[in-house]
Structure formats: C-alpha cells, structure tokens
Design brief:
The chain is α/β, with parallel strands linked by helices. It has twelve helices and nine strands. Helices cover 52% and strands 17% of the residues. Strands 1, 2, 3, 4, 5, 6, 7, 8 and 9 form a nine-stranded mixed beta sheet that branches. The longest helix is centred in the last third of the chain and has 34 residues.
Amino acid sequence: MTRSLSVVMPVHNEAANLRATIDALAAAASRSALTVELVLVDDGSTDGSVEAAQTAAAGSLPLEVLVREQEGRFKARRAGVAAATSDLVLLLDARVRLHPDSLRFLGDVLSVDTPVWNGHVVPQIEGNPFGAFGNVLVHIAWAEYFDDPRSVSFGLEDFDHFPKGTGCFVAPRELLLEAMDEFSPRVSDWRLVSDDTQLIRWIAGRHRIHLSPEFGCDYQPRSSLRAFVGNALYRGSTFLDGHGRRESRFFPLVVGFFPLSAALVVLVLRRPVAAPALAAVTAAAAGAAAARARRPVFETLSFAALAPVYAAAHGAGMWRALAALARERLR
C-alpha cells in the first residue's frame, strides 16, 4: 500500500480554524511513516483563509492551494482529489483536528484489503451547549458504536448504524474519483445536496469501511446560536437528499415528517398558544432521550434546551429541499 497521503481540505471562511487544524495535521504526519501533502481548496473565502493556511503550513507541510468561486464542499473536494498526487486521499475538514497518533495508526493498518477508513470524531464541548447538542445527537443516532467504541467495519447491510462523514475519511484516490463521478444529485442547487451520505454509501457497496478510536480526531463545533441555526437548516436540507431514499433506515422518518410537520404548522397557526406547549414537549422528549443515552447533565440540559430550535430549523431545511426538488420535477 502507498506510503504517501494527500490531504484534501475544502475551505470557506475558516481562517480562524486553520492554524490549529494544520498544526495538528503536521504533528500527526511527523509521528507517522506517511509522506503527507496538503491540498487546500478555497471555495470562495473572503476572510484570508488562503493566507492563514500558507502561514500555518510554512516549513511543516507541502501545500498546494486551489482557489475557486464558491460552489459548495462537494465540488471543492472533487477538485482537490483530482489535483492530489498520492494514490491515497484523506478528506479532512477545516474544523477537524487529527489526534497525534492517528496517522501512525493509519499507516500500520492500511492495506489492499482495508483501504477505506472513517475517522472517529470527538466533538470538543468544553462548556459549549451547541457542541454538547451535537454530541448527544450522534450518540443517540449511532448508539451501536458509541456505546462501545472499538475497531469495527461496516458495509451496506449495516451502513446506517455507524457514524461516517467526509470530514475525516480516507480512501484510494481513484475510488473517490469514481464515486464522485457516479454521484447523482437530485437538485441542481449544490447547497442542498448531501455531500457525503450518498458518496460513502456507494463506496460501502464496494469496500467495507473501517472505523477505530485510534484513527481519531477532534471536531470544533459552532459556538453561536446564529451559526447553530444556520447549520441545522443546512443539515435539514441535506438530510432529505441523503436519507430520503428507500435504502436508508431513516427513510420512514423522512416520509412521516412532512404530513406531521404540516399538521403542526396548521395547529400553531390556528392556535398560537400551542407553540410553547409543543416546544416544551419537544424539550422534555429530548431530555428524556439524552438521559436514556446516559449523557452527562450538561449535555442533557443542552440537548433539551436546544431541541426545539434545532427541530424548527432542521424541519425548515427539509421543507426547503422538498420545494427545490418539486421545482426540479416540474421543469
């Protein structure tokens, strides 16, 4: 198996995060036997992200920068993978910081039979209720893994029972390019397209995907209510694209969401007093779910408090994506 690794990082206004992310990448590279290059794809940044990356990588990592107009993470990643020079590619987001020994572990376990790995992502909560919310959500969604983190692999048959994402994902370059070329978005607006679920599901049909706490990384979550709401809206839009398909175990939830949410909207419009009651019920149910997942008190309270906000924004995102899909079908 190749001893070199191209790290492809799509960036849109991430100057504040790039120093720590690139420092962590350089440190992990220095502790491994892998030769590492960084391909940074600037997707229309206006905050000096390119300059921040060049300063951070100077003297520690070979860096190639591609500057593009903003078209979304999927197209940015595709351009970066095409420009990569190694046979093996690590897709890494600007908010994801590798653990010191993660690349050393990866170098030891990569083989022709095990070429695809997903990172074990650890959200950095540290008093951040928005990060705490996300941490509870993933522990509930993928309890099968997070209840007992260990080295595992999964394929299509158990695809939706394990965490995965292109924020920290390793695969052969040619496999990634083939998967990206097979990618079939339902809508022309790439802002509403899931840039990882369909892609990784396609790969899982050809190679088992491996996951281990030893290939770990930290994720820096959003830290403001505005960013949290914006991310929830985005997640709702891409959730429909990624899981509004029969092969997903979340498909029944997607189908049931639209009539239920429409009925609730009608109820609130007719009886505005129902809105706080619905918010209270949502918060109580979320708190109970977090408690069943045995999350700490701070995480449980954060999940309960933010659940009504997230549900409203996520739901709005799903309706936005459905409207875009309807427009596409009517053309």
